[in-house]
């Protein structure tokens, strides 16, 4: 079996698992620290497999996330499309950054996502998340290297 055929399942399964991780109930004290798993996994695919993951996939994942999480319809979709657009624009540079610098760039994108989220909530007159929810991008920054290495090993079939 070719490597391409063996890993075609990886993209949808990883996005599905990221969606499920966003649904896992957390203690109220840990809720602000929940990383945006769907954004992290989608960022990996936009950087590493741009022919398979782009704005259309980001929009579709966002609509599914909106329905699954029960938020404003289109909120997650808009956030993921903005993130995917920025990643596509700077993909050539990001791809060759060391993993630590990639993590910083992903952290900046996650902070940008929080800003977009706050703007959407402000625009529709809903309450903006409390200040402690701004810690989640930092956790996403810390999770990027192990997530990247794990997905890369699965995608390339390495057994390091």
Arithmetic mean pLDDT = 90
Largest sheet: none
Which oligomerization state do the chains in this entry correspond to? single chain
What is the helix tally? Answer: 7
DSSP E strands, number: 0
**Distance, first to last CA:** 21 Å
Low-confidence stretches: none
Q: Calculate Rg over CA atoms.
A: 15 Å
Provide the helix percentage.
over 70%
What does this structure look like?
- This protein has 7 helices and no strands.
- It has helices at residues 3-7, 10-23, 37-48, 55-69, 75-94, 99-124, 136-156.
- The chain is globular and about 45 Å long.
- The protein starts with a helix and ends with a helix.
Question: What's a concise summary of this model?
Answer:
With 160 residues, this protein is mostly helical. It has helices at residues 3-7, 10-23, 37-48, 55-69, 75-94, 99-124, 136-156.
Task: Please render the helix and strand layout as text.
Elements: H1 3-7, H2 10-23, H3 37-48, H4 55-69, H5 75-94, H6 99-124, H7 136-156
Structural key phrases:
mainly alpha; 7 helices
